[in-house]
Prior knowledge:
The complex is a heterodimer of chains A (209) and B (234).
Chain A: H1 5-21, H2 23-33, H3 38-56, H4 61-75, H5 80-95, H6 103-121, H7 131-146, H8 151-167, H9 192-208
Helix pairs in contact in A: 1-2, 1-3, 1-4, 1-9, 2-3, 2-9, 3-4, 4-5, 5-6, 6-7, 7-8, 7-9, 8-9
Chain B: E1 4-9, H1 12-25, E2 31-35, H2 46-55, E3 62-66, H3 70-82, E4 88-90, H4 95-107, H5 112-126, H6 136-147, E5 152-157, H7 166-177, E6 182-185, E7 188-189, H8 193-197, E8 206-212, H9 216-228
Parallel strand pairs in B: 1-2, 1-3, 3-4
Antiparallel strand pairs in B: 5-8, 6-7, 6-8
Helix pairs in contact in B: 1-4, 2-3, 4-5, 4-7, 7-9
Amino acid sequence: MALDVTWAVKWLTMCAQAMAEHRLELIELDRAIGDSDHGENMDRGFQAVLDKLAESQPETPGAALKLTAMSLMSKVGGAAGPLYGTAFLRAATTLGDAPDISPAALAQALEAARDGVVARGKAEPGDKTMVDAWTPAVEAAGAASAAGANVLAVLVAAAEAAEEGAAATDPLIARKGRASYLGERSIGHRDPGAVSTALILRAAAGAAA
Amino acid sequence: MTVRLVVVSHSEKIADGAVELAAQMAPDVVILPAGGTDDGRIGTSMEKVMAALAEAADGDGIVILTDLGSAVMTAEAAIEFSGDPDSVVLADAPLIEGLIAAAVAAQTGADLRTVQKAAEAVRGALGQGRDEPVSVNEESRTQHAADWQPEVSESFELVNEAGLHARPAAKIAGGLAGMDADVTINGVDGASMTGLMTLAAGKGSVLRVEANGPDAAKAVRYIQGLVQSGFGES
């Protein structure tokens, strides 16, 4: 399907479902190396997004993402709020008022989102954060788009790369956020932010299928 | 018109308490709290921060002070959302000390960058910053001892009962923040409220004021006025 506002609303709805389904898993991951609120926060944040979507009925994908940014920033509470909020805001700004999204614009929006996360959280690849899911996703999306893939294929490539990136955080030592206080004890645990990023990107592909 | 301040904290009580404390030293400055989440939990709320920024928008700019971690991120994101990065700035300073220094500077009518600088100057006095653990104070102390020749230097005796406690230190530091002068008092940076408080100078102590720069004489007169009037205290 075309990546229009119907897709955007479906994507965000699937994000909310994914966060509700994986709430306990994210809580467990965060309990190991953080403060165990990530599942709770993301679930609440995306429920608020759904309420907001029903209330204001955006007309473009960019408008839907901007509204998502605002809701996540207000309702998530932890560091994930401003991080995901900035990601959605930067993507929305890139998309502007366009009624639907081309493969190239999609790759560009993902890159803007990742750059927003990096600007806000100052993490680099390898720090065991959501950047470790975002960066491979951006690279895979860019490569797929350059190779002439359609939007669905670009989203699937991004989701797969994000999932691999999240799994690859297991052996890393956390260097940012609360997990960094644990130092080497963070080894062997998957970063919850990288996992929630992969869930969001998987939902984006699912909504386009 | 003065610069306005917004306090972003994970806790509503901390934000409210910090505002209450600073307001006592700077009664004419608009200082707004944005603490806790929308539903009163521990955390930071973009909505509360945006609301405070909107409410404070009609002054001569806004300086935001924050506590830990995501408060900084939320404040930065709010600045990005508000789309007015020139009139809203973040002070990289410890919340309470920075807020009081900023409030006192704002009370004296200092401009946006000066208020921000007044807040950030307390980092040096505490010997730590978020990014660079450099003690500005010790650097300047060494420099002063070696080759610093003050253009103006005078000594004044503290006459007020309580000596150089928080409020007098804030008055000195706040006033100096708006002047183009490099001032030390008994070797510590005169523009740093917390630095002055480390002197623990009581009634009868003598303050040796040394100053350089275009406003050196004005700065020394300013301190003299405050000290000799007992900072308006008994």
